[in-house]
């Protein structure tokens, strides 16, 4: 769903989305040309800097029936996030919600956002049903937190 030379018209298909899976950790923040590091052997985990080297997912993010082994770390997510019966972990991410985009947590979802930054232009940033919860820990706030549980807001 990301815009690239191979997919320059990415905004024209609103059905495109990312889907999370169990036992997958998606890491962002690597340098643009990692082959220039370490004598040409490529980037190592210690070379990541998610603020200086943004890795952008620009599309809706969907997760159904995943556990806490699904981790997004050091990414910028532009678009909505829909979680159903899911327990994903977001670390050091920028969650850029625009207009009608929101974090939707349904059907017993329990999402953790740790050291994330939220930006939003909408007052309904979080939509959480009665069976679900969002945990926000050491994050920078959005315009509104909605019904999210805030732990040690920074």
Strand content: 35-45%
Rg (C-alpha, Å): 16 Å
Net shape = elongated
**Terminal-residue CA separation:** 32 Å
What's the tally of helices? 0
Give the structural class: mainly beta
What is the average of the pLDDT values? 77
Structure description:
With 154 residues, this protein is mainly beta. It has no helices and 15 strands. A 6-stranded parallel beta sheet has the order 2-5-8-11-14-15, with no helix packed on it. 28% of the residues are buried.
Write a concise synopsis of the structure shown.
The chain is 0% helix and 36% strand. With 154 residues, it is mostly beta strands.
List the helices and strands and how they pair.
Blueprint: E1 17-19, E2 25-27, E3 56-58, E4 60-64, E5 71-73, E6 76-78, E7 81-84, E8 89-91, E9 94-97, E10 103-106, E11 110-114, E12 117-120, E13 126-128, E14 133-137, E15 149-151
Parallel strand pairs: 1-4, 2-5, 3-6, 4-7, 5-8, 6-9, 7-10, 8-11, 9-12, 10-13, 11-14, 14-15
Labels describing this entry:
15 strands; elongated; six-stranded parallel beta sheet; mainly beta; 154 residues
């Amino acid at each position: 769903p990301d815009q690239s030379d191979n997919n320059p018209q990415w905004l024209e298909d609103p059905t495109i989305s990312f889907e999370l899976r169990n036992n997958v950790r998606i890491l962002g923040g690597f340098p643009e040309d990692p082959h220039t590091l370490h004598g040409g052997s490529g980037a190592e985990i210690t070379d990541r800097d998610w603020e200086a080297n943004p890795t952008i997912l620009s599309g809706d993010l969907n997760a159904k029936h995943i556990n806490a082994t699904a981790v997004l770390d050091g990414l910028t997510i532009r678009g909505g996030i829909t979680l159903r019966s899911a327990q994903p972990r977001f670390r050091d991410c920028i969650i850029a919600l625009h207009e009608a985009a929101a974090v939707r947590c349904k059907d017993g979802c329990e999402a953790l956002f740790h050291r994330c930054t939220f930006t939003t232009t909408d007052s309904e940033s979080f939509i959480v049903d009665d069976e679900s919860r969002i945990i926000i820990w050491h994050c920078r706030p959005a315009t509104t937190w909605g019904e999210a549980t805030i732990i040690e807001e920074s």
